[in-house]
Amino acid sequence: MRKNHGPKINVITLGCSKNTVDSEVLLGQLALNGARLVESADEAEVAVINTCGFIDAAKQESIDAIVEAVERKNAGKLKRVVVMGCLSERYAIQLAEEIPNVDAFYGSHHLKEVAAELGFDFKRELLGERLLSTPSHFAYLKISEGCDHPCSFCAIPLMRGMHRTRPLEEVVTEARRLAAKGVKELILIGQDTTCYGLDLYGKRRLDTLLRQLSAIESIEWIRLMYAFPGGFPTEILNVYRDSPKLCRYLDIPVQHASDGVLKSMRRGVTSRALRELLRTIREAVPDVALRTTLIVGYPTETEKDFEIMCDFVKEMKFHRLGVFTYSQEEGTSAYDLGDPIPQEVKEERRDRIMQLQQEISHERNQELIGTKGMVLFDRCEGEFLVGRTQWDAPEIDQEVYVRQHDGLAPGNFATVQFVDATEYDVYGEIHESGD
User: What is the mean pLDDT of residues 251-259?
Assistant: First the structure.
């Protein structure tokens, strides 16, 4: 195998965890082909930018990164700039016209072509091999790609295509490889994880996948993200009951709670159905932490619709919640509705929802004080070890702070006594056995 040849390559990843996995796959291919990879843009001779095209803010971040790289190239600090990912998938022609000094644009499904552009072969036998960019004890595991749902506001099908299940054997093999590298927590991702298996096997097989992943000995936590509420496979709740490895955590993006808005959004679910599903989940898994995302400022959203959503948030008391302001996306069915709600109104509605959630989160965290829980530590920060409970995903949810302790390091689990909490952080002490 060739070693340490070619220009120094820096891969810049923007956007979501799905992009993270794509970059890790590309880096794995490059590393095993002997490419010279560098983590700093200042050291690089070639910049590869994996872009996001989800909403306006993400698009702008990607464009800014491309422009910065081109400026470095024009100044003689880079030899080449290669752009890939969702923004490039959607706007390659326009980007090439506006930023002409980029050497090549590739979409979100062209890792093989990107590797060839950089002078390396994409080896099929290396599928599943990745160079992790996360801490070594957790990894994102992509179980599917694309989405079949016709949500009016969403451009994901335009960038990622229709839903495609990864075969069970392929996903489990990759999970075993990750476990062999020391990964303890698998975070299952996809644009719609609950449709897993439907296109390939003729039925949803997420429960089968969860059971097979639970059988991998050294994997200790499995976390499920991006569970679409319509057609939710309730049989997976039996796996939650049976497998202690499955984190009592479920990410279900409901997006809204007003029937009128949900219908215009083409979500395929009613407010009543959402409530029934969430209650079913909580009855089956009483200690589950439910996470969701909402959109405020959708074109048809009235003040009454917004108040309905506020009431829904107060009623359902989600453990974790995020809010996006509506972003008008070309090519979506909602585009023709325009963008009539002023940005300042969207932001005010977002802030009102987050204020409600802050109160709910503070109340829930106060209930933790005096209890114990298992924590997986992610990093050191000053005098603290910083980690997460099973009820928290990395990067998006709250964290637990514990003073550094002999024998404990990032990647370790420990039982923690929770002694204090704010709205979004929890403080604890290591629970000594026998206490």
Answer: 97
Comparing CA positions, the residue from 71, 110, 106, 80 lying closest to residue 92 is: 106
Enumerate the β-bridge partners of residue 250.
224, 290
Q: How far, rounded to the nearest angstrom, does the alpha carbon of residue 294 sit from its chain's CA centroid? A: 15
The full 3-state SS of 58-123, as one line of letters, equals HHHHHHHHHHHHHHHHHCCCCCEEEEEEHHHHHHHHHHHHHCCCCCEECCCCCHHHHHHHCCCCCC
State both tokens at 40: 């700093």
Residue (of 362, 391, 374) closest to 287 by Cα position: 391
Task: Render 207-240 in DSSP notation, one character per residue.
Answer: HHHHHHHHT-TT--EEEE----STT--TTHHHHH
Lowest mean pLDDT among 196-200, 341-345, 405-409, 426-430: 405-409
Strands 425-430 and 144-145: unpaired
CA distances from 98 to 37, 55, 60, 162, 180 (A): 29, 19, 14, 29, 45
Q: pTM of the entire structure?
A: 0.93
- Look up residue 34 and give its two tokens: 């002997």
| 192 vs 405, higher pLDDT | 192
* pLDDT at 217 exceeding the cut of 60: yes
pLDDT value for 125 = 62
pLDDT at position 433? 63
Residue 128: pLDDT over 70 = no
Query: How does DSSP classify residue 38?
Result: -
Q: What are phi and psi of 411, to 5 degrees?
A: 100, -10
Give the model's pLDDT for residue 1. Answer: 42
Structure tokens that stand for 248 in this block:
């009592």
Tell me if 292 sits within 8 A of 250, measured CB to CB: no
- Comparing C-alpha atoms, which of 63, 14, 54 is closest to residue 326? 54
Q: Over the stretch 294-319, which tens digit does the pLDDT of each residue have?
A: 999 999 999 999 999 999 999 999 99
Interior/surface letters 303-332, b for 16+ CB within 10 angstroms, e for the rest: eebbebbbebbeebebbbbbbbbbbbbeeb
Residue type, 331: G
